[in-house]
Amino acid sequence: MEVPQPQSTEGGSADVRSRGRLVRSPDVTDRKLLTYLGTAMIASGQPVHEVEEQLRRVSARLGHPDAQVAATPTGLTLNLGSGEPASFESINGPLRLDQSAMVSDIRLGLLTGGLDPEEALTRLSGLRSLPSRYPGWAMHLGFLAVAFGIAMILQPGWPNLLVAAAGSVVVLGMSRLAARAQLLATLLPTVAAFAVALMVFSAADAGLIEGPLRTLLPPLAVLLPGALMVTGMSELAAGAMVAGSSRLIFGVVQLLLFTLGVLAAAKVLPVEATQLGNIRVDELGWWAAPTGLVVISVGLCLLESAPFRQLPWIGVVLLLAFAAQSVGQLLGGTAVGSFLGALAASLGASLVEAVRPQLPRLVVFLPAFWLLVPGSLGLLSVTQLGINPSEAVSTVVQVVAVICAIALGLMFGSAIARSTGRLIRRFRRRRTVPH
């Protein structure tokens, strides 16, 4: 994130001059450190209520137990006590998984006293400029691998996989262009969905593939706002009304933009309504899903610059989430599967963090969002809603039920993990106390 200009201060927090040079007071340095840390945590994908809670703990550790924090998805405001000067820092885009791991390491270092605040501030200031451990072509290959792996789970047929891979190349190229052109960045959801849908529907019209609607989801899955909407729902449930509402509204608008592109492509060709059903092709057999999980894990490491030594742990959480989701779908349908999948992912990530403290829970948990694909389900349902308005009620209820189920699964998993962690720490303290 960019280094902000120094804020004007008053009272005991003011900067002072010593021999003609400006000396920054400890309070100003701590406030700057905390705002940098908080915005980095938000950019890592954490819900704002967790960011506020953890930031208050760090602030108390630094000697400011009365700090006030107000976090939103786009920025953070903080002061060290009622009536004290406040600082604001805006979010400058999301962080990669390796950067998120560094943020978690800095936070833990401040909590345990193992990291000096000045060193922590220096590391946070250079976080955005941290280069990726893999070259650009490897990150592009990771993008394609993630889309291909999701296709092996959603629509495991060889023709469908090839078409989905071609669509992911198109989306990758548009994403690269959107990074340089603001207009394309704004229209990217609609333009990407239109281009991929046109390619997929053309292949279906030529008789090359079946189930085109599920085939076009994997290339778009990385761009879909599924994680955003689930995070917003969990924030609403936790009482963070402003952050939760804004995330949900933004996610719904993004889904509508994707849907507009798909519907426009369906009108251009045109495509018959019978081809736009939720049809799943299963030509590859049982091995497609496990292979897809491995491909997704490798692709995530390349795309998010995560070290390959974390690959087994990311794969374990993905496997737990997929197994729980599959069992839940067999027992009680999509909503139950989504709840159990999110619960397993949350608990699995907490277990990994307990076994490997240097591996942050968030890093191994976030990839599970793409596996649960709530955004893909939302796009599928909203597209069917545009084609067949008579099923509006059932479609909307299904999407809302899945998003709520995932959010509840995350909340239950986090609550169970925190309670278990407190019990373990209490047990360890009792064992260390001499009789």
UniProtKB/TrEMBL annotation:
InterPro entries given in the database record: ThrE-like_N, ThrE/Ser_Exporter, ThrE_2
Main subcellular location: membrane
Threonine/serine exporter-like N-terminal domain sequence ranges: 33-268
Protein family according to the UniProt entry: Belongs to the ThrE exporter (TC 2.A.79) family.
Protein name: Uncharacterized membrane protein YjjP (DUF1212 family)
Organism annotation: Microlunatus panaciterrae
Topology in the lipid bilayer: Multi-pass membrane protein
Annotated TM spans: 137-155, 161-179, 186-204, 216-236, 248-266, 286-303, 310-328, 334-355, 362-387, 399-421
Domain Threonine/Serine exporter ThrE positions: 295-415
Compartments where found: Membrane
Biased composition (Polar residues): 1-11
Keywords: Membrane, Transmembrane, Transmembrane helix
Region feature Disordered, mapped onto this chain: 1-24
Pfam families to which the protein is assigned, alphabetical: ThrE, ThrE_2
Superkingdom of origin organism: Bacteria
